[in-house]
Design brief:
Layout (H helix, E strand, L loop, with lengths): L1 E4 L4 H11 L6 E5 L5 E5 L5 E5 L5 H13 L4 E6 L18 H10 L4 E5 L14 E4 L2 H9 L7 E4 L5 H9 L4 E9 L5 E5 L8 E9 L3 H12 L4 E9 L5 H7 L4 E5 L7 E3 L2 H10 L1
Parallel strand pairs: 1-4, 4-5, 5-6, 6-7, 8-9, 8-11, 11-12, 12-13, 13-14
Antiparallel strand pairs: 2-3, 9-10
The structure holds ribose-5-phosphate.
């Protein structure tokens, strides 16, 4: 068994290979003069683990080409972050179900798919091969424990993220709540924890994805106004689109933490061990 990866998942793929004590196949990635992707894979094995987060359109194309380059092997696909997973419904007529399009495309040429905190578990059913999902909630909880915060409050930005937040909180036996948005006027909203006060407390807002950072920036500002001592933000997938990281830090957030499903300098939690264990268990 060998690991092979797309350009944007090199660090995670190497960590997975190290955990499994196997090698990573060398791949030359380049482009044709017109911008089309090209790649050349080194010597593959009969059993391949293909690691590639879909973080943008280029990484999606590169991943599809990589799967095809490995077409003489039994391929298992590790898809740590799956862009387009949030468009998992036809919210209005005429829209595509984008998650289904991506899932179908990536099912071709692989025998199994492993995702990490996929935005909506229902999306797993759109793959035409068996697909399972891993959760880094416990790993994020373990990381938070290393911060030695005094009685932190773990907050989900909305009710939908509450299950994830509760799993993070259970790693340290901490209290957990979710934010509730109240509209005060046409232009004013208030965001506060539903039941527990943030006053004088260290708060960690946790979510699966930070994209524009808008949700967490607004929440952090309001938590500080309500007397929170420190606010941290943690997520699995640090998309950080359009300067989100900078915007978050400018609100006074003490630190923004994410995992290496998308490789960032603030990727302090790794999905590698869980992925390696899942590959061994299969
Ligand atoms: C949404 O359903 C997700 O769980 C995140 O809450 C969302 O993607 C965060 O988006 P943003 O960072 O743009 O506020």
């Amino acid at each position: 068994m060998k690991v092979i990866c797309t350009e944007k998942s090199q660090v995670l793929a190497t960590r997975v290979a190290k955990a499994l004590k196997i090698t990573v196949v060398d791949v030359k990635y380049s482009r044709f003069p017109d911008g089309e992707h090209y790649l050349l894979a080194g010597e593959t094995d009969d059993e391949m683990v293909i690691v590639g987060s879909v973080v943008d359109n280029d990484s999606l194309v590169q991943l599809m080409l990589l799967i095809d380059a490995c077409d003489r092997a039994t391929n298992r696909l590790v898809l740590p972050y799956m862009a387009y997973a949030r468009q998992d419904k036809r919210f209005k007529p005429g829209e595509p179900i984008s998650s289904r399009v991506v899932a179908r495309a990536l099912s071709q040429g692989v025998s199994e798919v492993i995702t990490v905190n996929i935005h909506e578990k229902e999306v797993l059913k759109s793959f035409s091969v068996p697909a399972r999902n891993l959760s880094l909630a416990g790993d994020i909880g373990s990381y938070i424990r290393t911060l030695h915060l005094d009685n932190p409050l773990i907050l989900a930005p909305d009710e939908g993220a509450m299950v994830f937040a509760a799993q993070v909180a259970s790693a340290g036996g901490w209290e957990c709540d979710h934010l509730e948005k109240t509209r005060l006027s046409g232009v004013e909203v208030k965001m506060a924890p539903r039941q527990l006060s943030a006053e004088s407390r260290s708060v960690v807002i946790v979510d699966d994805i930070i994209s524009t950072g808008g949700t967490i920036a607004t929440a952090a500002g309001m938590l500080y106004q309500q007397g929170a001592k420190d606010v941290f933000a943690a997520c699995v997938h640090g998309v950080f689109t359009g300067g989100a990281y900078v915007r978050l830090m400018a609100t006074g957030i003490r630190d923004v933490i994410c995992s290496d499903t998308i490789e960032r300098s603030c990727s302090r939690v790794s999905a590698a061990d869980q992925i390696a264990q899942a590959l061994v268990k299969h």
